[in-house]
Structure formats: structure tokens, C-alpha cells
Design a protein that fits this description.
The protein is mostly helical and 103 residues long. The chain has one domain (3-102): Four Helix Bundle (Hemerythrin (Met), subunit A) (Up-down Bundle). The chain has 5 helices and no strands. The protein has helices at 3-26, 30-51, 59-71, 78-96, 99-102. The longest helix has 24 residues, at 3-26. The protein is globular and about 40 Å long.
Length: 103
Amino acid sequence: MSNEELVKYRFSRAKESYDESILLASGDHWNAAANRLYYACFYLVNALLIQHDLSFTSHNGVKTEFHRFFVKTDKITIKSGKLYSRLFNLRQEGDYVDKRFYA
């Protein structure tokens, strides 16, 4: 798959995840909605990184490099960077918070 095809695929996945988040929020499924919103952003950030010949395997790596290459260089607003970080944290809390009760 070429980078261009991968970017298109990531955009498609982002749209699908966003649409899922709307459906989940309408049913008051807030953890799941936050998860899907995070993934919508994650896919878009991945597409942006791929367009610049950057690729990272971990979620934290993607977030770190997004901030390093785009937010800190003012190519992306600080507000957008904070939103992505907030969604990252909400997803972590929603997916893994119960582990604290069993540790």
C-alpha cells in the first residue's frame, strides 16, 4: 500500500470512528464515545505523520511525535494538541481504569 493509499485509508477510518462516537454519545455511552473520538483523532494524526514520512507504532509515540513535529512548531494549534492529549487520557481512563481496582 502506498503512503497516499494509507493516508486515504486513515481518513476513512477517522470518519467511521467519528460517526461511531456520535451514535454512542446519543445513547449516553460516554466512555465508548470518548474512545471512538480518540481513535478518530489518532487516525488523522497518523495520516498527518505519514504525509511527512513519519511513522510510529505506539499510541504514546504517535502523540509525542505529533506534539514535537506539529504542535511545538506551531503547525497545529496548542488548543488542538491539548484536545488530542485530553482524548488520549480519556481513552486510557475509560479503557483501563478498572485495572486499578484489581491491582
